[in-house]
Amino acid sequence: MLEISNNNELPVIPNKRYFTIGEVSDLCQVKPHVLRYWEQEFPDLKPVKRRGNRRYYQRHDVVLIRQIRGLLYQEGYTIGGARQYLAGDTIKDDNTQSQQMMRQLRTELEDVLRILRT
């Protein structure tokens, strides 16, 4: 669960310990004000704050931001949905969705079988 598939066009994350908000903005192609907003919305996103409240993100923060970006921009999740997904609360939703797909597939196969029999 590291990165969403459409993050392949993003730049490679350099081998550094800390990144400024500007660097993370460039690496994730997300504006700094969006990063600050996501900090409020996603409890796992907690950059280190130092002198003058300056933010310093670590590598795992950058990976998490890319995952959030993928969920919101490519997968179409809402903020709340992405928060639940990251918290692992989607197991029930995924199971329900799988059951619906199986029912639909079974119905379609029964229709094909009916057509073949006639």
Radius of gyration: 20 Å
Order of strands side by side in the largest beta sheet?
1-3-2
Helix vs. strand class? mainly alpha
Shape: elongated
Helix content: 55-70%
Largest sheet: 3 strands, antiparallel
Q: What's the CATH topology label of the largest domain?
A: Multidrug-efflux Transporter Regulator, Chain: A, Domain 2
Any guess at the CATH architecture of the largest domain? Answer: Orthogonal Bundle
State the total count of DSSP E strands.
3
Count the helices. How many?
5
Q: Unreliable runs, pLDDT <50, ≥5 residues?
A: 1-6
Report how far apart the termini are.
47 Å
Summarize this, please?
The chain is mainly alpha-helical and 118 residues long. It is built from five helices and three strands.
Q: Can you give keywords for this protein?
A:
2 domains; 118 residues; Multidrug-efflux Transporter Regulator, Chain: A, Domain 2; 5 helices; disordered N terminus; mainly alpha
